[in-house]
Amino acid sequence: MNERKGFSVNGIPFIGLMLVQAALALYLFSSQTPIGFILGVALGVLLPFLAKGFFQVAPNEGQVQQLFGKYAGTVRTEGLRWTNPFFSKQRLSLRVRNFESGKLKVNDSDGNPIEIAAVVVWQVLDTAEAVFCVDDYENYVHIQTESALRQMAQSYPYDAHDDSKPSLRSHGEVINSHLRDEIQTRLGKAGVQVVEARISHLAYAQEIAQAMLQRQQAGAIIAARTQIVEGAVSMVEMALDQLSRRGVVQLDEERKASMVSNLLVVLCGERGTQPVLNTGTLYSG
Prior knowledge:
With 285 residues, this protein is an alpha+beta fold. It has three domains: 9-90, no CATH class; 97-204, Band 7 domain (Tetrahydropterin Synthase, Chain A, 2-Layer Sandwich); 209-268. The protein has helices spanning 11-29, 34-51, 127-132, 137-153, 172-187, 206-246, 253-268; strands spanning 9-10, 54-57, 61-67, 70-75, 79-82, 88-93, 97-100, 104-107, 113-124, 192-204. It is rod-shaped. The mean pLDDT is 83.
C-alpha cells in the first residue's frame, strides 16, 4: 500500500460558508411558517456534523484519512483544512527523529563478547505503509534496529590484525554505512527512511576486557619495537656506509660486528647507556 493524496479544502473559506448557513438556519427557524421552522432545525442540526470535518495540519505533519476502515489518502497541506466529516483522521509526524539503542551484548565474528550500541536518525517517508503495513511503526523501528545491529556486529571482528580487513573499531565509515543499509532493508516495508546510523558505544564485555587490554598493549609494544629496530638497523647501515665511503677508518668483519652490536644496544635500549673506554685492542686478552 502506497501513500496517495487525500481530499481536503481550505478551512477558512468553509468557516464563512458555515456562518452563512448558521444565519440562514436562524432566519428560517424564526420564521412563522412550518416549512421554514423544519428547514431551520435541519440546517442547525447539520452544522455540528459539518464542523467535524475541520482539522489542522502542522508543518512536517500528515493526516491519514480513513472512510469506514478504508484508506482514503493523506493530507500534508499545512493549515486549517476541511474534509469529509465521515473521514476518521490520524495524525502522523514526518519530522526527523533519533533514538539510541540500548547496549547489546553480542559476539563479533571472532567469537569475542562485546558491548555495542547505535544512534539512528530516521523519519516517516510513506504514511500509508507506516500506519497500515506494521502494527506500531515506532516500536517496529526500535526492534528492527537492534536486530540489524546484532547482525552487523557479528559480521566484523572487534579489532582486525590485518589493516585491509574492516573491523568495528578501526573502520567507522564502513561499519556505519553497513549498519544504515542493514536497518534500511528492514524498515523499507514500514515506510521509514534511515537518514543516518552510527555506532555510539563499542567495548569488550567485562569478562574479557582486561585480557583484551593486555593483548592490545602487547601488540602496541611489539609494533613499537619493530619500528625501533627497523630504524636502528637503517642508522647502523648508514653509519657503516659513510665510514667506508669517506675512508675514516678501515674495519674488518670482527670490528664491524662489534660496532654494529654496540650501536644497536645504544639505539634500541630503553635506558641511557654508559660508555666503556677500551684502552687496548679488540684482540688483546
